[in-house]
Amino acid sequence: MHSRVIRREVADAMLDVMTARERPSDRGTRTGRATLARLGDELRSARHDRSLSIDAVAGTLTISNAEISRIERGLSPKVPLVTLARFAAVVGLDLSAKFYPGGPTVRDAAQVELLATLRAQLHRSLGWATEVPMPLAGDQRAWDATIANPSGSAMVLLPLRRTTPHTPHV
Question: Domains in the chain: how many in total?
Fold first, then answer.
């Protein structure tokens, strides 16, 4: 694996340890950079295995040698997916992509409104927290909110769709 890729992965791993909660957009950026670095390594290895020069691949794809080098090093963050698929085909690979469930999503306006309505109905002496992580190691899910008092806590999960106007589900 290329030394820059290793340094980037170590830096990303350290960031994971240092931050308790990561914004969805930051998680996407980190994942995207790591994926581009991994794909670049695979493309470089395949090019070397087939004894293809950067000139040959660049000429076939009609892009510059410098861009081929940046792609292989994971340093071309805006490279089109189609270009990666074409590069893969030239070196005898097929590109496959799939989305998987990840961490927390950005709240939509209806969810924010439901939480605000619920919060407004609670006595101000009650504790309130949102996006509270599940207490299971490795579980990326979170409670939408928790309500706490000295004798215990209640966890709040909101429905995906509002079933009745202004009625939060607890």
Answer: 2
